Amino acid sequence: MKIQVSEFIVRYLERLGIDTIFGMPGAHILPVYDDLYRSGIESILAKHEQGAAFMAGGYARASGRIGACIATAGPGATNLVTGIANAYVDKLPVIAITGEAPTPVFGKGGLQESSGEGGSIDQGSLFRGITRYHRLIERTDYLVNVLNQAARILLSPTPGPVLLSIPYNVQKERID
Question: Which of 7, 40, 127, 173 gets the highest tally of CB atoms within 10 A of its CB?
Fold first, then answer.
């Protein structure tokens, strides 16, 4: 039976033992939020994405489990930087999930696009030095490999933050 990528990601988070996620909804991450609502993961609304990243780090530190935060594309993602940098320095297992503009508008100045194409903010470069792993998931054919690599890092003896950015249209795709 086919399911949406957004649901697959939420189910994967549940399999990792994630029961709480901190963040702010926004247009480019709504499919994931819709599936979070139907899941067993508690979604805690932050007043600002930076706070969500720090809450995820605090959760990881206090519980010894994976902390999770979520934000929309563009400014939502860039607002995570300071909290994710803190998780990196402290080697905390934090997963950040961000939305992204649909792939067909990459390089065309789409709203909140941060693909790095056409003069847009390059989210990958922004997070490169403060994550153990980051990936823009533009296609579904390597989704499982990306999630497994993120899990290996989060569950390793020396964890650190990982960031997965998923374009809106990819979140809506259906996979087996």
Answer: 127
